[in-house]
Design the sequence.
């Protein structure tokens, strides 16, 4: 039983989500390899080799893999998978884009968003917006899955000394091309990596009012998120969305401001350690999951909070 | 240009579905069913492509029980031209669904297949990507903008860091994210018209698809419930609790 984890990286650095996926892999078995597929990605491969408990780093370094286009990366992973019992990837947008394509190439039913490992073929995963936890057994010979990163504590980034092995296989389907990326620039931490998150909902009324959240967030060193309602209304961009079909987060402190608490939102944040809700509607469902609820007008409460911190 | 749109019948998004008391699966008895919201966005996008003169025919397909005909009808009322219903009473896995769609693609030869990025029941986010593998076509998942120009399409994708733009050759698979468009409501005349549109029926067996499940659902249970906490009086008390009781801020 050997497990392959596909690294999330930017060709230079390994992203934190990889460490959670490695933790899930190590819950299955001890023989874990990492694939770094990219272009000019030797720095990322070196970093992967230092991750605690890794046996071998496979590096597929080719321009075809530079932007993780699924049409090129999936056949590479499918080819390598022949030597593995399990293929895991963090459930990032990259992971979710690539892994089902790998599954279909292998004629395997992938399993999404595993939140616990029961045995080498049995896993737990949430579905129905997290309202049901399924225990699923895979009968496929290779298990292919994405990992819910918030469910597994990351392994240590340092301390390992894996061997690095080049993979020469080049798959370039030639049907897709990367054109560019518009990345939101922010000095705040990434949502999925933040210890504290301050999120705004429809109650914020418009995008300008999010400034009130940014001020509080900066005092706390927090990331800023939003409910689907706020994204839908165009207040803020989609990458800030926390929820069933947005980002899944579980910070130490989650402050929900002007968020009613629709099931779709709760699905993305209810595993946070401490939840604070600020809402003027005392019957808002968000209070049912909040450790500390404050029934108040957010336009009064936020400046006060900013002041108090 | 022909567009194939896949739609799924799911529990309405307002319903909080719970596990059955014997933990064998979701309890869907008497639950209101609807078209998956992301599938509805996919249908809307197809209709807009037709209104722009880019698409000439929209075929909508659903795989599910006989009752999924309602969701196909909904898509026809929104502007699709004809429907295909692949009937099965089994709860098919995404691999089997993708294989059924592959067979439909072989028959229909669409230029673009539009799907929702994720169904809100299984929360898998699989089918589009898997159809991409089976057809060998390009895939643009989590699309928030789609521009078709001749034999290729430029697609803006919602990714973790922001927005990514890719160009794909047609035929291709596109899966809809939230901001691709805002679906219209079907008008009464269009609902009436939809009743006259054809829906062809077939089955996975007719399409030559093996639907034997690869996974077994051993248990479906409610998640650990969070206890509701306390209400604080004001901001000062909140800050005090966070500092001294929860110790999550300093």
Sequence:
């Amino acid at each position: 039983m050997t497990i392959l984890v596909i690294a999330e990286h930017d060709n230079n650095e390994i992203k934190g989500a990889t460490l959670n996926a490695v933790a899930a892999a190590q819950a299955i078995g001890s023989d874990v390899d990492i694939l770094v597929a990219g272009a000019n990605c030797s720095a990322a491969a070196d970093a992967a080799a230092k991750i605690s408990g890794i046996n071998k780093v496979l590096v597929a370094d080719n321009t075809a893999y530079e932007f993780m286009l699924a049409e090129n990366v999936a056949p590479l992973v499918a080819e390598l998978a022949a030597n593995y019992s399990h293929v895991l990837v963090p459930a990032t947008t990259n992971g979710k884009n690539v892994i089902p394509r790998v599954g279909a190439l292998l004629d395997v039913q992938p399993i999404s968003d595993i939140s616990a490992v029961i045995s080498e073929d049995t896993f737990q995963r949430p579905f129905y917006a997290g309202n049901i936890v399924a225990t699923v057994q895979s009968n496929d010979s290779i298990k292919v899955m994405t990992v819910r990163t918030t469910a597994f504590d990351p392994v240590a980034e340092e301390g390992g000394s894996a061997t690095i092995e080049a993979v020469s296989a080049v798959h370039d389907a030639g049907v897709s091309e990367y054109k560019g990326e518009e990345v939101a620039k922010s000095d705040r931490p990434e949502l999925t990596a933040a210890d504290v998150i301050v999120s705004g909902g429809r109650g914020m009324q418009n995008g300008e009012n999010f400034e009130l959240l940014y001020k509080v967030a900066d005092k706390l060193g927090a990331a800023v998120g939003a409910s689907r309602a706020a994204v839908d209304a165009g207040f803020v961009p989609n990458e800030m969305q926390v929820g069933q079909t947005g980002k899944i987060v579980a910070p130490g402190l989650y402050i929900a401001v002007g968020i009613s608490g629709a099931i779709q939102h709760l699905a993305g944040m209810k595993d946070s350690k401490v939840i604070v809700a600020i809402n003027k509607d005392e019957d808002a469902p968000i209070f049912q999951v909040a450790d500390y609820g404050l029934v108040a007008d957010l336009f009064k409460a936020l400046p006060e909070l900013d002041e108090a911190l | 240009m022909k567009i194939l749109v896949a739609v799924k019948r799911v529990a309405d998004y307002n319903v909080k579905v719970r596990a059955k008391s014997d933990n064998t699966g979701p309890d869907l008895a008497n639950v209101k069913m609807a078209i998956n919201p992301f599938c509805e966005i996919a249908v809307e996008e197809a209709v807009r492509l037709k209104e722009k003169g880019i698409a000439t025919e929209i075929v909508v397909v659903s795989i599910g029980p006989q009752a999924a005909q309602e969701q196909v009808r909904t898509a026809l009322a929104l502007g699709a031209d004809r429907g295909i219903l692949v009937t099965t009473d089994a709860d098919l896995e995404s691999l089997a669904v993708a294989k059924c769609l592959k067979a439909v693609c072989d028959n229909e030869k669409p230029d673009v297949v539009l799907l929702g990025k994720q169904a809100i029941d299984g929360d898998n986010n699989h089918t589009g990507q898997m159809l991409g593998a089976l057809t060998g076509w390009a895939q643009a998942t989590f699309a928030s903008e789609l521009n078709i120009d001749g034999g290729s399409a430029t697609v803006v994708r919602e990714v973790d860091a922001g927005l990514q733009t890719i160009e794909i050759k047609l035929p291709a698979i596109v899966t809809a994210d939230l901001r691709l468009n805002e679906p219209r409501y079907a008008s009464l005349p269009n609902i009436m018209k939809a009743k006259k549109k054809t829906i062809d029926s077939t089955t996975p067996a007719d399409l030559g698809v093996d639907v034997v499940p690869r996974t077994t659902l051993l248990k479906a249970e409610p998640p650990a419930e969070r206890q509701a906490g306390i209400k604080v009086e004001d901001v000062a008390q909140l800050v005090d609790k966070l500092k001294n009781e929860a110790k999550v801020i300093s």
Observations:
- Residues 93 and 213 of chain B are 7 Å apart (CA to CA).
- The first strand of chain B starts at residue 2 and ends at 7.
- The mean pLDDT of chain B is 96.
- Chain B touches chain A through 82 residues (CB under 8 Å).
